[in-house]
Protein: Small ribosomal subunit biogenesis GTPase RsgA
Organism: Cryptosporangium minutisporangium
Amino acid sequence: MSSSLEFFGWDSTWADAFAPHAAGGLTPGRVVRVDRGQCDVVTAASPVGAVVRAEFTRMDVCTGDWVALSGQYVHAVLPRRTALVRAAASGLSHGQVLAANVDVVAIVVPCTVDVDLGRAERLLALAWESGARPVVVLTKADACPDVARVHEQVAGVAVGADVVAVSAVRGDGLDALDGELTGTVVLVGQSGVGKSTLATALTGVDLAVQDVRHVDGKGRHTTVRRELIPLRGGRGVLIDTPGLRGVGLFDAEEGLSRAFADIDALAADCRFSDCAHGSEPGCAVRAAIDAGTLPARRLDSYQKLVRENEWAAARTDARLRAERRARERTFHRQMRGHFNRPGRGRTR
Ligand SMILES: Nc1nc2c(ncn2[C@@H]2O[C@H](COP(=O)(O)OP(=O)(O)OP(=O)(O)O)[C@@H](O)[C@H]2O)c(=O)[nH]1
Ligand SMILES: [Zn+2]
């Protein structure tokens, strides 16, 4: 397969997954941007402005997906290796896929003395849940009087993840970060934490103004904002998609237990298997807090995120129940119509 697709992350595993489509004469490509049923797809040849067929819109084709194109139609979406999902911003009880086939989730946290550990923990849970590898990036290190201390605090909550301090303006730490960012990378973090500045430093492209000339399916030239940009180290691509800011957890039980693996491990020693780590006797988590080995803040943070996640799950269940009831009503209506039709021979 052409090196240009490899540039975007194509490998032999994708080629295997694509084989049946290749046999059918379809073209592989990676989605670099989606906009209401239209998506921009890079292929080994030129980029294609593709149309997502109506029957696929519910599959939520998103930036980062590998697709099989038939002409300018997205014919199939290859099964995702990973997916970054959050509770939909609208507060609907659906998950929203923000990016697909992400290898590294870089959690961007500004390096300040009053660093927001709870936010880092939330993003770590989200990242672990996606199936990608999380890395915490402490930005604006140049403006922090005690980088080592903040690094230590954050490393303390980032169980199983690396933490790298950088200054995008001075360039400190960027080489170390390059080494962490391989494959498909996304930056997540609140507004103002330095994502755009960092993205520019990592790609050499000013993403705030980047425009890409593009030929759509009808051969017209248009200008689009491509959301998949090669990293300067040549070892990956950055997904720069809007909407990676406010992140609510969605179905993130697994992610939470990875992000709080230390608490999970302690909880295994609680006397009761359903211990809520409140006032139960024999609680190993409380014992660790009393002994000073687990900060009370971390347990609070964990419990808050678990409640949030359960709340989202309950809403999903409620939605599924409502959908089932609506389907049943439709079914009964159809049945009544069917049996009440003249000549159906309903005997009374
Ligand atoms: N001192 C210092 N300031 C930085 C650094 N990186 C970013 N900033 C500043 O932090 C502010 C926010 O940076 P952005 O890169 O726009 O942050 P963002 O996360 O992209 O923000 P949104 O676009 O709102 O999501 C800007 O004023 C930057 O100049 C850094 O390494 N050092
Ligand atoms: Zn307990």
In short: The longest strand covers residues 27-35. The chain is about 35% helix and 25% strand. The pocket of zinc ion (ligand 2) is lined by residues 267, 270, 275, 277, 280, 283-285 (CB under 6 Å).
